[in-house]
User: Which sequence fits this backbone?
């Protein structure tokens, strides 16, 4: 299947090409209106979608298997393999698809699946979701829905493995419903290697009244992936979004987000730290929209980037769109290199240039990593970060100092 | 210990050191004095391999090797230590982690066993007390939010821990009150062992009341123009740098 075949098609043509029935016409209409991603499309402008979409992919036939019990939720090529006792994980129909999402691939994702994976987090729980991709040159498409309970606090830690999925494209994403007076902490730790899979993840998060959402993404490696995130906040709801990007090689990676304050007394805090090496391209294209009904909102948005090599390229677009007067809002972006004075200071104490760079890069990233409350998760993310650092500095360590 | 021969160095396109000669003797305290802009700090940067400095001529021979071939970290591992005039703040880098990394890099270089966290903390406790530093200073980010005096004490703490062979103190006395000056000087004097060499760069003679120099070198316009014993300090105090003429001419 080539996804470029879906470009510039009307609803009838899309219905036929995707093999779906008329019940999905609303989604087809949205996909047709928004159009498949291309270079002219603002949200995909900085991400090289064309080469991903014009490739011929195999499809996986959806054959659900018996779900085994394990300590984590494991999803292999979009099929649930294991789930922990006490957490309901099942396939089901999803009727609350957002009808105003900005991303066409959000709709395509929903059109490509006959059912979604529903995860119900009952009570105060903590769980891990492991996504494994095993098939090469395959379009792996699936959607997940997360629901938690009112007045409860849940944590989800998400990881990925894809060593054998060379040349595959993963189209996945969540619809998350954060119940009234609840909180969900969602931590994504994803190291992607070149010659594995590419990914486009399209999410929708609904944060209901007085609920608190924490969404933290830790993206490392040298492959390409884009996250598209839309979050809507009800009255007194709060979202804290943090994104740490440490990419190298020819990676193109980042986030396009819209945080929408829909009601009064909503608060959002979005912070991105981007570290780019080699020829990597980073994307932070983030809109915070305060609707006319969202008086007394507080919105903070910031992006800081360190460019470690000359050929890196960072797109930092923090944006505020405000329709009320009664609010507090700020946004900003900074970009620079490692501070030479700091580097020299560390080296002048006998610390090698590689270790000094690592200390400074780690210090930059630490403000996000150290905000993770759970020490175990913090340690796992630190380990991933250090592994990514060593992978991208491995070649350099063998060079004579003067050549670095 | 170290021989600086006809050293010429630029910062940008401007020549700052214009053929500087200096021999640092083992176990001696050498004070470099001179007016603003004479090249005192440039000298310290040239010895430590600072990125701003371009060496255009001459050599620095140390332990029978040219220092100019070595990276800044190699120079440090070989025993050269610069106490910075304005130590840079590094938010997010824990002071203790930094110092332990530096110490273990040196120990590894010397073929010694690296110190674990407990051994390192024991060593720290001893040095912190001797410098009158609060123990929480090593758990803070490196120099972040430190007062001028705290930064200088932190430099001396690093010196005590790293036990270098050549110690360059670049205006260690600037911004210090009397108590801090005394504590810092005591830390420096503790390091004297008859083998270590000191290069004390200063504008004023005050620090030399505490750290007794063996030699005074006057640096003017990128060259050492006069070398004498400690008695030269009194002349400089009375007559200023303008009274000093280049004894090499």
Assistant:
């Amino acid at each position: 299947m080539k996804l470029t075949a879906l470009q510039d098609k009307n609803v009838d043509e899309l219905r036929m090409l995707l093999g779906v029935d008329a019940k999905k016409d609303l989604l087809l209409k949205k996909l047709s209106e928004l159009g498949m991603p291309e270079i002219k499309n603002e949200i995909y402008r900085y991400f090289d979608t064309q080469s991903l979409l014009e490739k011929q992919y195999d499809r996986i036939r959806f054959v659900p298997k018996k779900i085994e019990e394990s300590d984590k939720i494991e999803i292999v090529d979009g099929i649930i393999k294991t789930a922990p006792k006490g957490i309901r994980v099942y396939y089901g129909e999803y009727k609350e698809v957002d009808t105003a999402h900005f991303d066409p691939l959000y709709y395509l994702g929903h059109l490509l699946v006959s059912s979604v994976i529903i995860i119900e987090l009952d009570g105060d729980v903590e769980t891990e979701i492991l996504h494994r991709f095993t098939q090469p040159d395959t379009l792996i498409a699936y959607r997940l829905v997360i629901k938690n309970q009112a007045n409860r606090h849940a944590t989800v830690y998400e990881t990925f493995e894809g060593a054998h999925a060379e040349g595959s494209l993963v189209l996945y994403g969540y619809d998350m419903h954060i119940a009234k007076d609840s909180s969900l902490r969602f931590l994504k730790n994803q190291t992607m290697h070149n010659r594995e899979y590419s990914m486009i993840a399209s999410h929708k998060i609904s944060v209901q009244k007085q609920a608190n959402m924490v969404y933290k993404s830790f993206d490392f490696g040298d492959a390409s992936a884009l996250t598209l995130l839309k979050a809507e906040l009800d009255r007194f709801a709060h979202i804290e979004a943090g994104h740490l990007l440490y990419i190298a090689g020819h990676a193109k990676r980042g986030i396009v987000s819209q945080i929408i304050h829909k009601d009064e007394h909503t608060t959002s805090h979005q912070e991105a730290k981007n570290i780019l090496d080699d020829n990597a391209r980073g994307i932070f294209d983030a809109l915070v929209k305060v609707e006319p009904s969202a008086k007394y909102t507080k919105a903070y948005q910031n992006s800081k980037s360190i460019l470690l090599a000359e050929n890196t390229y960072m797109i930092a677009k923090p944006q505020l769109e405000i329709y009320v007067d009664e609010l507090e809002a700020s946004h900003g972006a900074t970009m620079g290199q490692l501070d030479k004075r700091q580097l020299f200071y560390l080296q002048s104490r006998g610390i090698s240039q590689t270790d000094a760079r690592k200390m400074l890069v780690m210090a930059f990233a630490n403000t996000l990593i150290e905000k993770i409350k759970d020490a175990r998760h913090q340690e796992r993310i630190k380990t991933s970060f250090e592994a990514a650092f060593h992978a991208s500095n491995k070649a350099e360590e063998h060079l004579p100092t003067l050549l670095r | 210990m170290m021989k600086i021969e006809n050293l010429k160095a630029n910062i940008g396109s401007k020549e700052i050191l214009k053929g500087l000669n200096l021999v640092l003797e083992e176990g001696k305290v050498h004070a470099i004095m001179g007016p603003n802009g004479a090249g005192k700090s440039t000298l310290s940067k040239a010895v430590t391999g600072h990125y701003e400095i371009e060496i255009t001529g001459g050599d620095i021979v140390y332990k029978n090797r040219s220092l100019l071939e070595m990276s800044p970290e190699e120079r440090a591992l070989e025993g050269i230590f610069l106490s910075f005039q304005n130590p840079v703040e590094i938010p997010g880098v824990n002071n203790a982690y930094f110092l332990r990394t530096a110490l273990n890099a040196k120990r590894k270089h010397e073929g010694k066993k690296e110190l674990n966290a407990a051994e390192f903390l024991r060593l720290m406790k001893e040095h912190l007390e001797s410098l009158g530093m609060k123990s929480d200073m090593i758990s803070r980010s490196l120099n972040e939010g430190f007062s001028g005096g705290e930064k200088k004490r932190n430099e001396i703490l690093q010196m005590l821990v790293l036990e270098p062979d050549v110690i360059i103190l670049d205006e260690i006395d600037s911004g210090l009150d009397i108590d801090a000056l005394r504590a810092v000087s005591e830390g420096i004097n503790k390091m004297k062992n008859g083998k270590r060499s000191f290069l004390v760069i200063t504008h004023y003679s005050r620090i030399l009341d505490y750290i007794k120099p063996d030699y005074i070198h006057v640096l003017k316009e990128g060259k050492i123009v006069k070398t004498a014993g400690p008695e030269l300090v009194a002349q400089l105090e009375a007559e200023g740098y303008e009274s000093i003429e280049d004894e090499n001419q």
Remarks:
- Chain B has one domain: 2-243.
- Chain B has a mean pLDDT of 92.
